Amino acid sequence: MMIALYVVLAIIGIIVLLALIAPKKYNVSRSVQVNKPLEEVFNYIKYVKKQNDWSPWKKKDPNMKQEFEGTDGEVGFISRWEGNKEVGTGEQEITRVVENETLESQLRFFKPWKSQSDAYITVDAIDATTTKVTWGFSGVNKPPTNIFFLFFNMDKTVGKDFEDGLSQLKTILES
């Protein structure tokens, strides 16, 4: 009986320790240079529906169900999706638009697991005809689920998707 109690206490102790040392926050972003003026680039990226043309997730499930609410490119616009295992189910809501600077949105995932992240796309003029586009998202890993991130590299996994998407965005904008 006492051995079982010690085993249970040891397991609880390990879980608490892992939850304390596991990452509590994440931020993943990638950038690309686009050979187009900043205003032209921003006027394209501020519309969430256009992400269907360059998002790597749309390619992972071209048959995903989508639904839109509100005016695209404006605060309050919501894009909802329901897709396969790779894409999951969720929604993206525009929370802030600063013309020719940033588009911020909240990502709410419902399946395969529930989570919430803050997404952003920013533009910076390198010169009159070249724009740096940065795409990323950040959030909080709540204990004890943050233990998972000791074994899963969010930056490596999602970063590759961001690189693919930005490469496609560059191709579209420069064609």
UniProtKB/TrEMBL annotation:
SUPFAM superfamilies: Bet v1-like. This is SRPBCC family protein. The keyword Lyase does not apply. The chain crosses the membrane at residues 6-23. CDD domains: SRPBCC_1. It comes from Winogradskyella vincentii. InterPro entries: Polyketide_cyclase/dehydratase (IPR019587), START-like_dom_sf (IPR023393). Pfam families: Polyketide_cyc2 (PF10604). It comes from the Bacteria. Keywords: Membrane, Transmembrane, Transmembrane helix.
